[in-house]
Write a structure and sequence with these properties.
Distance between the termini: 41 Å
Radius of gyration: 18 Å
Helix content: 40-55%
Largest sheet: 7 strands, mixed
Bound molecules: S-adenosylmethionine
Strand content: 15-25%
Number of helices: 10
Structural class: alpha/beta
Number of strands: 7
Amino acid sequence: KISGFKEVQEEEKSQMVDNVFSSVASNYDLMNDVMSGGLHRLWKDRLVSKLNPFPGMRHLDVAGGTGDVAFRILESLNSVSRRAVQDVLQDNLQEETQIYVCDINTNMLNVGKKRAQERGLEDLRSLRWVEGDAEALCFEDASMDGYTIAFGIRNVTHIEKVLAEAYRVLKPGGRFLCLELSHVEAPGFKQLYDYYSFSVIPALGELVAGDRESYQYLVESIRRFPPQDMFASMIADAGFQKVEYENLVGGVVAIHSGLKF
Ligand code: SAM
């Protein structure tokens, strides 16, 4: 009975997350800029610089709906190939590089596809949009050189399953990187940040997107997410080595990384 109850709760959670993202999809970019003061762009730049993308790589960006991380990876590869003298590298970029954007929510993927169109990337063979669940990925074992998940893991039902799947699909030598809103500890700053998250963000959600509830949920999910050290242990438990993290803005966000050997 208890496990039946748990299953219902879990089903409700994933349904609710789906509703939240269907609801925020159309305002998602604007709200990201408003809530983070544009900082999310720098945080994503940092994530991609840590990934160090290379031409010919197969990369999976999970919970990547809007394409923000994938576009940055492509930009970074483009500058690599511009620096290289041989034209052949440019061909490799088209032929062999594969950047998969996987998201469970069709509306978020549609926002990403629309943005790809606006950037003239709709025919780029290197960019693939895949509807799928981070907890049960539709990719083969040891098929990816890199895995990123930005602002996605705190909304999943089972973090452990997501980490196990990340480990499974990465090739030996592959890198796992996770950018997530995290925990601020410095006294003073913590109180300020709590006030901002619990009072200002839902009010902004109401004002800008007419949707207080979804933004309230998103803020509450930050508090429930494990603190930096605990999350690092979970990544190590999934099998990753050289697990480390970097706090940005005093822990407002953290980038965790791990290697599969
Ligand atoms: N990565 C993008 C960014 O940083 O702008 C989007 C982040 S958005 C806050 C979270 C995304 O996670 C949503 O697009 C949502 O649909 C997706 N998501 C939630 N649960 C998921 C799951 N189990 N599998 C794949 N994607 C999921």
